[in-house]
Amino acid sequence: METAKKEHQLIVSVSPHVKSEETTSRIMWSVTASLLPAAVMGAYFFGPRAVITLALCIITAALSEYGYQKALNRKASVSDGSAILTGLLLGMNLPASVPFYIPLIGSFVAVVITKQLFGGLGYNVFNPALIGRAFLLISFPKLMTIWTKPEAAFIRMDAVTTATPLGILKEEGAAKLMEVFGDKINLYTQLLVGHRAGSIGETSAIALLVGAAFLLYRGYISWHIPVSFLGTSAVLAWIFGGKGALFAGDPIVHLISGGMLLGAFFMATDYVTCPSVKKGQLLFGAGCGFLTMLIRLKGGYPEGVMFAILIMNCFSPLIDRGFRTKVFGARKEARK
Protein backbone atom coordinates (compact mmCIF):
# COMPACT_ATOMS: atom_id res chain seq x y z
CA MET A 1 0.00 0.00 0.00
CA GLU A 2 2.87 2.33 0.89
CA THR A 3 4.61 1.59 -2.43
CA ALA A 4 1.44 2.33 -4.43
CA LYS A 5 1.08 5.72 -2.80
CA LYS A 6 4.67 6.63 -3.64
CA GLU A 7 4.20 5.65 -7.29
CA HIS A 8 1.24 8.03 -7.67
CA GLN A 9 2.84 11.00 -5.97
CA LEU A 10 3.05 14.20 -8.00
CA ILE A 11 6.61 15.12 -8.94
CA VAL A 12 7.18 18.84 -9.37
CA SER A 13 10.31 19.98 -11.23
CA VAL A 14 11.63 23.26 -12.59
CA SER A 15 10.81 24.42 -16.10
CA PRO A 16 10.82 23.69 -18.94
CA HIS A 17 8.00 21.18 -18.58
CA VAL A 18 7.42 20.73 -22.32
CA LYS A 19 10.25 18.84 -23.96
CA SER A 20 10.93 18.09 -27.60
CA GLU A 21 13.20 15.74 -29.47
CA GLU A 22 14.27 18.61 -31.74
CA THR A 23 17.81 19.85 -31.19
CA THR A 24 19.77 22.74 -32.61
CA SER A 25 21.82 20.31 -34.66
CA ARG A 26 18.77 18.57 -36.13
CA ILE A 27 17.15 21.89 -37.08
CA MET A 28 20.32 23.21 -38.72
CA TRP A 29 20.86 20.06 -40.76
CA SER A 30 17.17 19.97 -41.72
CA VAL A 31 17.30 23.54 -43.02
CA THR A 32 20.47 22.64 -44.91
CA ALA A 33 18.67 19.68 -46.49
CA SER A 34 15.74 21.91 -47.47
CA LEU A 35 18.13 24.13 -49.44
CA LEU A 36 19.60 21.28 -51.45
CA PRO A 37 16.96 21.28 -54.25
CA ALA A 38 17.69 24.94 -55.01
CA ALA A 39 21.44 24.34 -54.73
CA VAL A 40 21.22 21.42 -57.17
CA MET A 41 19.27 23.54 -59.65
CA GLY A 42 21.88 26.28 -59.34
CA ALA A 43 24.61 23.75 -60.06
CA TYR A 44 22.63 22.42 -63.03
CA PHE A 45 22.22 25.83 -64.65
CA PHE A 46 25.58 27.40 -63.79
CA GLY A 47 27.88 24.39 -63.96
CA PRO A 48 31.12 23.50 -62.12
CA ARG A 49 31.86 27.06 -61.04
CA ALA A 50 28.68 27.08 -58.97
CA VAL A 51 29.59 23.77 -57.31
CA ILE A 52 33.11 25.00 -56.51
CA THR A 53 31.77 28.30 -55.12
CA LEU A 54 29.30 26.50 -52.85
CA ALA A 55 31.95 24.03 -51.69
CA LEU A 56 34.46 26.79 -50.92
CA CYS A 57 31.87 28.71 -48.89
CA ILE A 58 30.89 25.66 -46.86
CA ILE A 59 34.45 24.43 -46.23
CA THR A 60 35.76 27.89 -45.33
CA ALA A 61 32.84 28.53 -42.98
CA ALA A 62 33.44 25.22 -41.16
CA LEU A 63 37.21 25.71 -40.96
CA SER A 64 36.83 29.32 -39.79
CA GLU A 65 34.57 28.30 -36.92
CA TYR A 66 36.77 25.36 -35.96
CA GLY A 67 39.98 27.39 -36.10
CA TYR A 68 38.55 30.30 -34.12
CA GLN A 69 37.19 28.06 -31.36
CA LYS A 70 40.39 26.04 -31.13
CA ALA A 71 42.48 29.22 -30.97
CA LEU A 72 40.47 30.29 -27.92
CA ASN A 73 40.51 26.79 -26.38
CA ARG A 74 36.76 26.45 -26.79
CA LYS A 75 34.85 23.32 -27.65
CA ALA A 76 34.40 23.02 -31.41
CA SER A 77 30.77 23.18 -32.48
CA VAL A 78 31.08 22.56 -36.21
CA SER A 79 29.04 19.37 -35.87
CA ASP A 80 25.90 21.34 -34.97
CA GLY A 81 25.63 22.34 -38.64
CA SER A 82 25.25 26.10 -38.12
CA ALA A 83 28.52 26.98 -39.86
CA ILE A 84 27.71 24.61 -42.71
CA LEU A 85 24.31 26.27 -43.13
CA THR A 86 25.87 29.75 -43.07
CA GLY A 87 28.36 28.76 -45.76
CA LEU A 88 25.65 27.22 -47.93
CA LEU A 89 23.41 30.28 -47.63
CA LEU A 90 26.28 32.60 -48.47
CA GLY A 91 27.23 30.52 -51.49
CA MET A 92 23.65 30.53 -52.72
CA ASN A 93 23.67 34.33 -52.54
CA LEU A 94 26.76 34.68 -54.76
CA PRO A 95 27.01 34.83 -58.55
CA ALA A 96 28.61 31.77 -60.10
CA SER A 97 31.11 34.02 -61.88
CA VAL A 98 32.95 35.30 -58.78
CA PRO A 99 36.68 34.53 -58.39
CA PHE A 100 37.36 31.72 -55.95
CA TYR A 101 38.89 33.99 -53.31
CA ILE A 102 35.52 35.75 -52.87
CA PRO A 103 33.85 32.80 -51.07
CA LEU A 104 36.86 32.52 -48.74
CA ILE A 105 36.63 36.15 -47.64
CA GLY A 106 32.86 36.15 -47.35
CA SER A 107 32.68 32.98 -45.27
CA PHE A 108 35.36 34.22 -42.87
CA VAL A 109 33.50 37.51 -42.35
CA ALA A 110 30.17 35.69 -41.91
CA VAL A 111 31.37 33.14 -39.36
CA VAL A 112 34.19 34.79 -37.42
CA ILE A 113 33.30 38.49 -37.43
CA THR A 114 29.50 38.34 -37.53
CA LYS A 115 28.92 35.23 -35.45
CA GLN A 116 31.85 34.19 -33.26
CA LEU A 117 33.03 37.64 -32.19
CA PHE A 118 29.52 38.32 -30.90
CA GLY A 119 29.59 35.19 -28.75
CA GLY A 120 28.75 32.36 -31.12
CA LEU A 121 25.45 30.77 -32.13
CA GLY A 122 22.49 32.55 -30.58
CA TYR A 123 24.28 35.84 -29.86
CA ASN A 124 24.74 37.35 -33.32
CA VAL A 125 22.66 40.45 -34.03
CA PHE A 126 22.62 40.14 -37.82
CA ASN A 127 22.20 37.22 -40.19
CA PRO A 128 25.80 36.01 -40.74
CA ALA A 129 25.39 34.96 -44.38
CA LEU A 130 23.82 38.30 -45.32
CA ILE A 131 26.56 40.28 -43.57
CA GLY A 132 29.11 38.21 -45.49
CA ARG A 133 27.36 39.03 -48.76
CA ALA A 134 26.97 42.71 -47.86
CA PHE A 135 30.68 42.94 -47.08
CA LEU A 136 31.53 41.39 -50.43
CA LEU A 137 29.11 43.64 -52.32
CA ILE A 138 30.61 46.75 -50.74
CA SER A 139 34.22 45.58 -51.17
CA PHE A 140 33.93 44.04 -54.66
CA PRO A 141 30.86 45.67 -56.28
CA LYS A 142 31.88 44.89 -59.85
CA LEU A 143 32.66 41.22 -59.22
CA MET A 144 29.45 40.77 -57.23
CA THR A 145 27.24 42.12 -60.02
CA ILE A 146 28.48 40.05 -62.95
CA TRP A 147 25.76 37.52 -63.68
CA THR A 148 26.19 34.31 -65.65
CA LYS A 149 23.76 33.23 -68.33
CA PRO A 150 22.27 29.83 -67.39
CA GLU A 151 23.35 27.23 -69.94
CA ALA A 152 22.34 23.97 -68.25
CA ALA A 153 25.67 22.54 -69.38
CA PHE A 154 27.51 21.12 -66.41
CA ILE A 155 30.78 20.37 -68.17
CA ARG A 156 31.41 24.00 -69.16
CA MET A 157 33.71 26.21 -67.08
CA ASP A 158 33.39 29.33 -69.24
CA ALA A 159 30.32 31.51 -69.04
CA VAL A 160 28.41 34.19 -70.92
CA THR A 161 27.36 37.17 -68.84
CA THR A 162 23.89 38.71 -68.96
CA ALA A 163 21.54 40.82 -66.85
CA THR A 164 19.05 39.54 -64.30
CA PRO A 165 15.30 40.06 -64.89
CA LEU A 166 15.21 42.65 -62.10
CA GLY A 167 18.27 44.35 -63.57
CA ILE A 168 16.60 44.58 -66.98
CA LEU A 169 13.41 45.91 -65.41
CA LYS A 170 15.36 48.48 -63.38
CA GLU A 171 17.78 49.72 -66.03
CA GLU A 172 15.93 49.28 -69.31
CA GLY A 173 12.29 49.05 -68.33
CA ALA A 174 9.44 46.63 -68.82
CA ALA A 175 9.52 46.98 -72.61
CA LYS A 176 13.01 45.44 -72.73
CA LEU A 177 11.94 42.67 -70.39
CA MET A 178 9.06 41.90 -72.72
CA GLU A 179 11.49 41.83 -75.65
CA VAL A 180 13.78 39.36 -73.87
CA PHE A 181 11.14 36.96 -72.57
CA GLY A 182 8.33 37.52 -75.05
CA ASP A 183 5.23 37.18 -72.91
CA LYS A 184 4.16 36.67 -69.31
CA ILE A 185 3.70 32.92 -69.58
CA ASN A 186 7.26 32.42 -70.83
CA LEU A 187 8.63 34.79 -68.18
CA TYR A 188 6.78 33.02 -65.37
CA THR A 189 7.93 29.64 -66.66
CA GLN A 190 11.59 30.68 -66.83
CA LEU A 191 11.49 32.20 -63.35
CA LEU A 192 9.76 29.18 -61.81
CA VAL A 193 12.11 26.65 -63.40
CA GLY A 194 15.23 28.73 -62.87
CA HIS A 195 16.44 29.43 -66.39
CA ARG A 196 17.47 33.04 -65.70
CA ALA A 197 20.53 34.93 -64.53
CA GLY A 198 21.01 35.54 -60.82
CA SER A 199 22.70 34.20 -57.72
CA ILE A 200 23.33 30.47 -57.52
CA GLY A 201 20.52 29.67 -55.11
CA GLU A 202 17.83 32.10 -56.19
CA THR A 203 17.25 30.72 -59.68
CA SER A 204 14.53 28.08 -59.35
CA ALA A 205 11.44 29.34 -57.54
CA ILE A 206 9.94 25.84 -57.57
CA ALA A 207 12.98 24.33 -55.85
CA LEU A 208 12.89 27.04 -53.18
CA LEU A 209 9.17 26.50 -52.59
CA VAL A 210 9.72 22.76 -52.20
CA GLY A 211 12.30 23.40 -49.49
CA ALA A 212 10.06 26.00 -47.83
CA ALA A 213 7.12 23.56 -47.80
CA PHE A 214 9.31 21.02 -45.99
CA LEU A 215 10.27 23.55 -43.30
CA LEU A 216 6.65 24.61 -42.82
CA TYR A 217 5.49 20.99 -42.63
CA ARG A 218 8.08 20.13 -40.00
CA GLY A 219 7.28 23.28 -38.04
CA TYR A 220 10.80 24.67 -38.23
CA ILE A 221 9.42 27.97 -39.51
CA SER A 222 5.98 29.53 -39.23
CA TRP A 223 3.96 31.33 -41.88
CA HIS A 224 4.03 34.72 -40.18
CA ILE A 225 7.24 36.21 -41.61
CA PRO A 226 7.08 34.74 -45.15
CA VAL A 227 3.40 35.62 -45.67
CA SER A 228 3.72 39.17 -44.35
CA PHE A 229 7.00 39.63 -46.28
CA LEU A 230 5.63 38.39 -49.60
CA GLY A 231 2.18 39.91 -49.10
CA THR A 232 3.51 43.39 -48.40
CA SER A 233 5.89 43.15 -51.36
CA ALA A 234 3.11 42.04 -53.70
CA VAL A 235 0.74 44.85 -52.68
CA LEU A 236 3.41 47.54 -53.02
CA ALA A 237 4.57 46.15 -56.38
CA TRP A 238 1.00 46.22 -57.67
CA ILE A 239 0.30 49.76 -56.44
CA PHE A 240 3.61 51.50 -57.12
CA GLY A 241 5.32 49.26 -59.70
CA GLY A 242 4.11 51.30 -62.65
CA LYS A 243 1.36 51.00 -65.21
CA GLY A 244 1.12 50.90 -68.96
CA ALA A 245 3.69 48.17 -69.64
CA LEU A 246 3.38 44.42 -69.68
CA PHE A 247 5.55 43.58 -66.67
CA ALA A 248 5.52 46.88 -64.77
CA GLY A 249 3.63 46.61 -61.51
CA ASP A 250 3.32 42.84 -61.82
CA PRO A 251 3.60 41.44 -58.26
CA ILE A 252 4.27 37.89 -59.47
CA VAL A 253 7.43 38.98 -61.28
CA HIS A 254 8.75 40.61 -58.11
CA LEU A 255 7.81 37.65 -55.90
CA ILE A 256 9.59 35.00 -57.96
CA SER A 257 12.53 37.15 -59.11
CA GLY A 258 15.77 37.85 -57.31
CA GLY A 259 16.24 36.74 -53.73
CA MET A 260 12.64 37.26 -52.60
CA LEU A 261 11.76 33.61 -51.91
CA LEU A 262 15.22 32.72 -50.60
CA GLY A 263 15.11 35.67 -48.23
CA ALA A 264 11.50 35.32 -47.09
CA PHE A 265 11.61 31.61 -46.22
CA PHE A 266 15.23 30.87 -45.37
CA MET A 267 16.92 34.07 -44.15
CA ALA A 268 14.32 36.36 -42.62
CA THR A 269 13.10 33.41 -40.52
CA ASP A 270 16.47 32.90 -38.82
CA TYR A 271 15.69 32.07 -35.18
CA VAL A 272 18.40 34.29 -33.72
CA THR A 273 17.87 37.48 -35.71
CA CYS A 274 14.08 37.61 -36.08
CA PRO A 275 11.47 38.36 -33.39
CA SER A 276 10.26 35.42 -31.32
CA VAL A 277 6.72 36.76 -30.77
CA LYS A 278 4.26 35.85 -33.55
CA LYS A 279 2.68 39.30 -33.77
CA GLY A 280 6.14 40.78 -33.88
CA GLN A 281 7.05 38.44 -36.72
CA LEU A 282 4.16 39.82 -38.78
CA LEU A 283 5.51 43.33 -38.31
CA PHE A 284 9.05 42.15 -39.03
CA GLY A 285 8.00 40.50 -42.29
CA ALA A 286 5.95 43.51 -43.35
CA GLY A 287 8.94 45.75 -42.68
CA CYS A 288 11.16 43.53 -44.81
CA GLY A 289 8.65 43.62 -47.65
CA PHE A 290 8.26 47.40 -47.45
CA LEU A 291 12.01 48.05 -47.46
CA THR A 292 12.60 45.54 -50.25
CA MET A 293 10.13 47.22 -52.58
CA LEU A 294 11.30 50.69 -51.55
CA ILE A 295 14.82 49.78 -52.68
CA ARG A 296 13.68 47.96 -55.80
CA LEU A 297 11.32 50.66 -57.02
CA LYS A 298 12.94 53.85 -55.76
CA GLY A 299 16.53 52.98 -54.86
CA GLY A 300 19.66 52.54 -56.92
CA TYR A 301 19.80 48.73 -56.63
CA PRO A 302 17.53 46.39 -58.59
CA GLU A 303 17.46 44.08 -55.54
CA GLY A 304 16.71 44.96 -51.93
CA VAL A 305 16.08 41.76 -49.96
CA MET A 306 19.50 41.64 -48.30
CA PHE A 307 19.44 45.24 -47.09
CA ALA A 308 15.82 44.96 -45.96
CA ILE A 309 16.45 41.92 -43.75
CA LEU A 310 19.62 43.38 -42.24
CA ILE A 311 17.86 46.65 -41.40
CA MET A 312 14.96 44.82 -39.79
CA ASN A 313 17.42 42.67 -37.80
CA CYS A 314 18.26 45.88 -35.94
CA PHE A 315 14.66 46.23 -34.82
CA SER A 316 14.09 42.63 -33.70
CA PRO A 317 14.83 43.24 -29.99
CA LEU A 318 12.64 46.35 -30.00
CA ILE A 319 9.80 44.50 -31.72
CA ASP A 320 9.99 41.67 -29.20
CA ARG A 321 9.91 44.18 -26.36
CA GLY A 322 6.88 45.93 -27.83
CA PHE A 323 4.89 42.72 -28.30
CA ARG A 324 5.94 40.89 -25.15
CA THR A 325 3.21 39.20 -23.15
CA LYS A 326 1.72 41.19 -20.29
CA VAL A 327 2.15 39.69 -16.84
CA PHE A 328 -1.19 39.45 -15.06
CA GLY A 329 -1.34 39.94 -11.32
CA ALA A 330 1.79 42.08 -11.16
CA ARG A 331 1.66 45.60 -9.81
CA LYS A 332 3.41 48.51 -11.46
CA GLU A 333 5.78 50.41 -9.26
CA ALA A 334 4.52 53.85 -8.40
CA ARG A 335 6.46 56.65 -10.06
CA LYS A 336 8.08 59.06 -7.65
UniProtKB/TrEMBL annotation:
Cofactor: FMN
GO biological process: electron transport chain; transmembrane transport
GO CC terms in record: plasma membrane
Protein's recorded name: Ion-translocating oxidoreductase complex subunit D
Subcellular location per the Swiss-Prot or TrEMBL entry: Cell membrane
Family: Belongs to the NqrB/RnfD family.
Source organism: Candidatus Nitrobium versatile
Keywords: Cell membrane, Electron transport, Flavoprotein, FMN, Membrane, Phosphoprotein, Translocase, Transmembrane, Transmembrane helix, Transport
Task performed by this protein: Part of a membrane-bound complex that couples electron transfer with translocation of ions across the membrane.
Residue spans crossing the bilayer: 27-45, 51-68, 77-94, 223-240, 252-269
EC number, as in UniProt: 7.-.-.-
Enzyme class per UniProt: translocase
FMN phosphoryl threonine: modified positions: 164
Membrane topology: Multi-pass membrane protein
Chief location of this protein within or outside the cell: membrane
Gene name for this UniProt entry: rnfD
